[in-house]
Amino acid sequence: MINILEVKETNKMVSEENLDVRTITIGISLFDCMDSDLDKLNDNIFNKITTVAKDLVATGAKIEREFGIPIVNKRISVTPIAMIGACACHSPEDYVTIAKTLDRAAKTVGVNFLGGYSAIVSKGMTTQDEYLIRSIPEAMATTEFVCSSINVGSTKTGINMDAVKLMGQIVKETAEATKDQDSLGDAKLVVFCNAPDDNPFMAGAFHGVSEADAIINVGVSGPGVVKTALSHVRGESFEVLCETIKKTAFKITRVGQAVAKEASKMLGIPFGIIDLSLAPTPAIGDSVAGILEEIGLQRAGAPGTTAALALLNDQVKKGGIMASSYVGGLSGAFIPVSEDQGMIDAVNEGALTLEKLEAMTCVCSVGLDMVAIPGKTSAETISGIIADEMAIGMINQKTTAVRLIPVIGKDVGDVVEFGGLLGYAPIMPVNEFDCSAFVNRGGRIPAPVHSFKN
Amino acid sequence: MENKNRTIISVVGKDTVGIIAKVCTYLSDNGVNVLDISQTIVSGFFTMMMIVDTENASKSFDEIQKGLATLGEEIGVEIKAQKEEIFEMMHRI
């Protein structure tokens, strides 16, 4: 039988250490909405989303009350729209109408983000894929809830450098299109290598083609809980450190599993996966950088950071995997800059640079996330940064992503405020040496060899 | 996890006379059966945990949860009601 200390421990995690379930995300297939008539397609999409997800927000709130665990976000992911609109869309503007429909559907069911304004172009782009990509700046500027992601590479296919080049321009154009809001549009746009089909986290969530008609995916969180647990084992060996992270990750993930099962039962939609990522928020104490400091670094970015992050990421997986029947999505530690107070502090104090962040992305999920850079950064330089990050993912057979925000009108020394969960960020300096001749070559980087690992 | 109706009620706050009596009265008035009670005082703070069965309760879980929270405000303590399942999941393999 449960004892009083266990009850106290759980409730303390919620009240003092920011334990929460970060998101319940319903993945919805839109394949049965396809039509060659654009108006019909838009109607079908709106009807399907508002039917399947109509009870999502109320159900989330009910589970929150029953378990006493906050569920911060309720979200939706859909089949990559480039495919769904392929028969009906004959221009980027046609795709924008779908973005607006998605936005309206998201607003109607009350979710705070809807992901899947996406295209998978890891080997090549169809005409429709390119229309969708070219529609992103306008789509991000004219919608509030829609998130976009483009997969430009994979370990199996290599990297589509034409798409990388295009995405550099699109990131820049999206920044321009939303410059009145500090280029917020780019906070809703992710470029991926090896994007997972079942990621519940935004902005990169989409409902992959390998998925069923509808599915519940849950993303857990809890950096504050891990940090507090580690504060009790200061000075102990790595064995004790790792054991503590594992046990804590197990407990956090079990909460996600309980919520996922309950949501699945109440909504009558099958349970897909738990994404056992450590997702920080700008709240004090809810920081992955804070865990790195607790492990023994003065600031994130100090020598030892990559090793500390590697062990953290691995132990979270080891603890979390046993806690859930199905683990998927991104599953690892997130290191977004603007959403993590410890990361912001590290940048402000000069401990953390873009290059060190890139090294850190080799050992954790996901990539250069929510990094604000000078608005004057060229499209080619952005493509170069994307290419570097994609190469890390391709070679290491892992997911990597880039969510850069070139803030128009701002430069190093300025701060940009996105608000809410997206937080705020100091503008980070970017290496200004030119890479345009590399980016402009065109074509693909071939898939890597899968042997001779060195 | 054999019984989905089992709920954990936790009470935390400043110790005063009659906390248990008032909570138990509320529960019995609403047909909630108390299965187990444990309590302790940590640095002057009263902490109590009850395991209850709401199978034959006259009100819904949400109503009981709200009723207890209101009662807590009256006595000056915090009263939470949560399904036992969440604790079982976290603390039992």
Throw out a few tags for this protein.
heterodimer, A: 454 residues, alpha/beta, Anaerobic Ribonucleotide-triphosphate Reductase Large Chain, eleven-stranded mixed beta sheet, two-stranded antiparallel ribbon, 44% helix, B: 93 residues, alpha+beta, Alpha-Beta Plaits, four-stranded antiparallel beta sheet, 37% helix, globular
Quick overview:
By secondary structure, chain A is α/β, with parallel strands linked by helices.
> What structural class do helix, strand and pairing data of chain B support?
alpha+beta
Low-confidence stretches of chain A: none
Number of strands of chain B: 4
Q: Assign the CATH architecture of the domain at 23-193 in chain A.
A: Alpha-Beta Barrel
Largest sheet of chain B: 4 strands, antiparallel
Low-confidence stretches of chain B: none
Known CATH architecture of chain B: 2-Layer Sandwich
CATH class of the domain at 23-193 in chain A: Alpha Beta
Textual characterization of the structure:
The complex is a heterodimer of chains A (454) and B (93). By secondary structure, chain A is α/β, with parallel strands linked by helices. Chain A has a domain at 23-193: Anaerobic Ribonucleotide-triphosphate Reductase Large Chain (Alpha-Beta Barrel). Helices cover 44% and strands 17% of the residues of chain A. Chain A has helices at residues 4-17, 38-52, 56-67, 81-84, 92-109, 127-142, 161-177, 223-231, 238-267, 288-295, 305-323, 341-348, 354-360, 379-396, 436-439; strands at 21-28, 71-78, 113-120, 146-154, 158-160, 189-193, 214-220, 271-275, 368-374, 400-407, 415-417, 424-426, 444-445. In chain A, the strands form 2 sheets. In chain A, strands 1, 2, 3, 4, 5, 6, 7, 8, 9, 10 and 13 form an 11-stranded mixed β-sheet that branches. In chain A, strands 11-12 form a two-stranded antiparallel sheet. In chain A, a hairpin with a 3-residue loop joins strand 4 and strand 5 (158-160). In chain A, helix 7 (161-177) crosses helix 14 (379-396). The longest helix of chain A is centred in the middle third of the chain and has 30 residues, at 238-267. Chain A is globular and about 60 Å long. The termini of chain A are far apart. Chain B has a single domain, classed as ACT domain (Alpha-Beta Plaits, 2-Layer Sandwich). Chain B is built from 3 helices and 4 strands, in the order βαββαβα. Chain B is 37% helix and 38% strand. The model of chain B has no long low-confidence stretch (mean pLDDT 91). By secondary structure, chain B is α+β, with helices and mostly antiparallel strands. In chain B, strand 2 (33-42) and strand 3 (45-53) form a beta hairpin. In chain B, helix 1 (19-29) runs antiparallel to helix 2 (61-75). Chain B has a 4-stranded antiparallel β-sheet. The N and C termini of chain B lie close together (12 Å). The relative contact order of chain B is 0.30. The chains are: A alpha/beta (454), B alpha+beta (93). Chains A and B meet through helix 1, helix 3 and helix 9 of A and strand 2, strand 3, helix 2, strand 4 and helix 3 of B.
